[in-house]
Amino acid sequence: MEEYWKTISNEFWEVWNFPNCIGALDGKHVVIEAPPNSCSFYFNYKKTFSIVLMALVDARYKFIAVDIGAYGKSNDGGIFSSSKMGKAFKKNKFNIPNGRALPETMRNERKIRRSEGKPYVTKKNVMVERKKEPKEEISCKYTCSKCDLLSAEVAAKPRDKHTKNMLELHHKKAEKARQQMKQDTALSQLPTSDICMFSMDLEQVLSLPSLTHSQMFYLRQLSCYNLGVHFGDSNRGHMFLWHEGMSGRGGNEITSCVFEALNSNPTVKRKLTIWSDNCVGQNKNKMLLFLWIYLTLTDKFDEINHKYLVSGHSFLSCDRDFAQIEKRKRVEKCEVPMDLVKLIVHATPNNPFIVTLLEPNNFYDFKKAADMYLNTGKLQISKCS
Ligand SMILES: [Zn+2]
User: Fold this and answer.
1) Rounded to the nearest 5 degrees, what angle is found at the Cα of 228, between the Cα atoms of 223 and 231?
2) Cis peptide before 209, with omega less than 30 degrees from 0?
3) Which residues neighbour ligand 1 (ion) by CB within 5 Å?
4) Cα(83) to centroid of ligand 1, in Å?
5) What is the Cα–Cα distance from 326 to 323, expressed in whole angstroms?
6) Ligand 1 centre distance from Cα of residue 308 (Å)
7) How far is the CA of 270 from the centre of ligand 1 (A)?
8) Is 366 helix (H, G, I), strand (E, B) or coil?
9) Cystine design at 287: which of 10, 58, 222, 366 (Cβ 3.0–4.6 Å)?
């Protein structure tokens, strides 16, 4: 029996390039007429009545095991764990082989332990039980092109101290910026604080209508843009939405949104700190610089600091907000921009985002003003860090 699973696993690798897989499992709802007096037992999420055919197949679609007859209301996980098939797997009655290293990673293989009949392997590059990691740490996992290039050089020349130091310095710089952002957020939250702080970023383009039929694949969709502004003091996300029919998504639009964000959230604090990524077109340009100068000249703030995270390591609070929106977007379909507004408002019920659907007159020509009053050529804004 053990050899049988190994053969299947080898086939999955050969045919599908998927390692250490001994079968593909899924449930199929077979529509039936509701039996008399069966309440909602057979009523499924597709709003029909059904029984479930759950099947485990090998790499060539051949059935290995099936379970037929579960109620349509049940989910796949529940059906599997209460089925004879699932119970037999749990008790390891099928002689499942021990866990083994992923292909090309045999060198580091260490001990393999068995837990509740399921193979888990205690090493980094083998599938292991996933543990939830604190959300704050997400950014540490990301690498940028510089990280990858330097890591490759260190691997190729392990004795080259210079490259090693460069990589270390780069990581330290990224980490330091991240810590400083955390510190700024904490500072702004102090009751006596005189600092207003926010981070901002543009979400990836949201295309409308979000229909899934195949023709949509080839049709031109309406691009909607969403600038997230996450205020550190209130820990609240503000979203500014507009679509391509109103304006583009360059420095002018970003600056206009920030202007709107500050106008709609007036503060008595005298200092302003902004954190963003290094995108030159959006955040690192003379339009924003002009706005900062304008805000100090009009006595809105005494001091403004715009700080940038290290490129490729710019995980901001807005990104966490966007992840919530993306999650909601997977289950809710939007057709017009107003649907997006509703979706974003409902994305986080506990701490709802404040959404503003911008009007064409919310956009100002900051570029023209900056060109008239600022000569930033010598400053080389895009290159500063
Ligand atoms: Zn990096």
Assistant:
1) 170
2) yes
3) 144, 146-147, 312
4) 48
5) 5
6) 14
7) 34
8) helix
9) 366
Give the integer Cα–Cα distance in Å for 97 and 237. 49
Token reading at 142: 């990301």
Entry pTM: 0.61
Which DSSP category does 43 fall into?
A: B
Tokens read off for 87: 């119970």
Rounded Cα gap, residues 153 and 145, in angstroms: 12
Cα Rg, the chain, nearest whole Å? 27
Q: What is the pLDDT of residues 26-74, one digit of tens each?
A: 999 999 998 888 888 899 988 899 999 999 999 988 999 999 989 999 9
Asked whether the CA dihedral 373, 379, 380, 384 is positive or negative, the reply is: negative
Token digits of residue 228: 């997230």
Which of 208-215's residues contact partners 24+ apart within 8 Å by CB, and which partners? Answer: 208/243, 208/334, 208/335, 208/336, 208/337, 208/339, 208/340, 209/333, 209/334, 209/335, 209/336, 210/329, 210/333, 210/334, 210/335, 211/333, 211/335
- 275: CB partners within 8 A, 6+ apart: 181, 184, 197, 198, 199, 200, 307, 308, 309, 316
| Residue-wise pLDDT tens digits, 283-336 | 888 899 999 999 999 999 999 999 998 888 888 999 999 999 999 888 888 889
Rounded to the nearest angstrom, the distance between the alpha carbon of 177 and the centre of ligand 1 is 12
